[in-house]
Every structure is written in structure tokens, then in C-alpha cells.
Amino acid sequence: MIRTMEAADLPAVHTLWNRTTLSREVLYKPLACERFQALFVSAGDHEVKCNVVAEQDGQILGFGSAYHNTGTDRGYITFILVDPAHRRRGVGTALLRALEHRLRAFPTIVRIDLNFFNPINLEWFIPGTPGHDHPNAPGVDVSSPAFPFFTARGYAETSRQYSYYRLLADFQFQPKIAERAAALAAQGISITYYDPARHYGLSELFDDLGNEDWRDKVMTNVNGPRPYPLLIVEQGGRVGGFAGPLYVQESGRGYFAGIGVHSELRGVGAGSVLFSALCQGLRDIGATFMSLFTGRENVARKIYESAGFQVVHEWACMRKAMQ
User: What 3-state class would DSSP assign to 219?
Assistant: First the structure.
């Protein structure tokens, strides 16, 4: 039987999640019960979290979760999880159909996505590392059974995302990057830390970049009582790019919300110098590693790879049109 998850189901569903993640069958991290509930159950204004379970004779066989922000044109499938002892019996398909049925009840939804825009961020362990993690899975793990599962049920791949990783202990500016920094300086362009008393145009930068999520995270930080440092591209006091904010997460990961360069300053090497300054800045404040993801077709990959970052995993962003 497929039904809506109830509060009484939470311990069994949480146990299923942790049993699966601790076995390393999937890359996702185990979760404390409070964290599990915050991710999958607790909802803010305009948020809808649809949770369903598969039950047989009082036993929870599987769990599925979907997300929708009311009034928007898309829903998200966050996760489908089935107990290993009950797989290949149609349980996962039934859970997915139940979630799709619930999302169809919202008239504004025209598609269902599995991608990094889902506000429910699932943390995962980076393979081959001593427990190093990344705070958000950008899509469906292409090496997992989930990829053929969703493909067979009408979900099409819209983009391929690469996860990059690098240890920072030995990071240093490459000679070519140092040469670019000197060439930029000759044009009056420098990489420095943001100082609101000396620099202007930070908010206007995000008008050019067109990324409201970056604007929200960066402006909230710089306007806070104790802001984290923010690297910028600067010319004559005007902000022409950003990277950060910079801080070290509990795992040792160097955090940054994003990196972007104003359209007027692209093509002169500012992005590569800014990224190397970001790596060095995070190393200097104690970060031991960095991780990030980007699209396979994104030309910025060359910047990351030239700084010594390597692809450690692949993900597929997927989509299904509502009928």
C-alpha cells in the first residue's frame, strides 16, 4: 500500500535512510533525526513537501519525497528509497507515481525536475576521500540505479554536471595565473577583499550576472554584523566580480557561495585569477579541501582544471513534462 507518510512513520523511514547511507550503497550522508525531519518534513511559507511511504503488514518498505514552492511552474522529486529486500517488485515505481499524482494537483506545475535548483540540499560523501563532503547533490547519480530508473519512467537528461575536488595544502598560483594577475594590474584591475568604505557597485554586479541566489547570499553576508571575507575584482573602486563569501565548514571544506565576473571584464583572465585567489584565500584561513560542481559544457571547467581540480563524480539533471 502506498500512502501519505505520517508522523508515526518517521522513526522507520529515518532508520531506512541511515541504514542505506551507512552501507555506502549511496553517496548521501547519514542524518540525525532532527536534520532528517528539517529536510523532508518541516516546511516554510509557500513550501509543500510531499512524502509517501510503501507499507506492507505494518512494515515500511520504501519512502519517496517531492517538493513544490506554490505558484511556481515546477515540482521536484527529491528522493525515492526502497528497502533492498523489497526492490524490483514495483515499489519504487509506485512511490514515484504517487508523488507525480500529488504534484499534478498543483495547476501551475508544468514539469518535474531532478536538479540542483531543488531547495532540499542532500549532502554526500566524495568518493575516495577521508570523509570529505559536498553540501548539495546537483542531480541524479549517473553511476547509481536511480539513473536508469528515472530514464525508463520518462525523465530525460537535460544536462550533465561534473563534481570537482582538490586538496588545498599544496595550492599555489601557477606561473601563468601570476602573469595574468600582473597583466590585469597594468590595466588597473586587481583582486582584493571587499571593503564597503572603498568599493561600490556590488549589488549592481548581480544585475549583470542575473543570479538572485548569489545576490541574496552575498548581500546578506556583507550587511551582517560579522561578515565573512569576500573577494572581488576591482577597477577604480568599482566591483567587477566576486568570489565567496569565504569560510571553513566543519568538515574542512572551503565554502563559497559562487564566483562570477561582470560581462564587461570577461575575456581578460579575471576569472582564472579570481578563482586562484579564492583557493589561496580558503587555504590561508584553514580549509583543507574544496569541492564544486559545474555543467559539462561550461567553459569555466578550464579554469578549475588548470588550478588542479579533478572530476570525481558525474550527475544528470533530469526532467519530465507534466501531461
Answer: helix
Crossing angle for the helix pair 33-40 and 10-22, to the nearest 10 degrees: 110
Confirm whether pTM is higher than 0.70: yes
**What confidence tens digit (pLDDT) does each residue in 186-216 have?**
999 999 999 999 999 999 999 999 999 999 9
What does the alpha-carbon distance between residue 39 and residue 63 come to, in Å, rounded to a whole number? 14
* For the chain, domain boundaries: 2-161, 175-287
Alpha carbon distance 59, 50 (integer Å): 20
Class of domain 2-161: alpha beta
In this structure, what C-alpha cell is assigned to residue 157? 537528461
CB-neighbour burial class of residue 232 (10 A; exposed 0-12, middle 13-18, buried 19+) = buried
- Does residue 62 contact residue 90 with C-beta atoms inside 8 Å? no
How far is residue 317's CA from residue 136's CA, in Å, rounded to a whole number? 13
Asked if the domains at 2-161 and 175-287 fall in one CATH topology, the answer is yes
Evaluate if residue 177 carries a pLDDT over 90.
yes
175-287 adopts what CATH topology? Aminopeptidase (3.40.630)
Measured over the CA atoms of residue 270, residue 175, residue 178 and residue 247, the dihedral's sign is positive
For residue 200, what is the DSSP state?
B
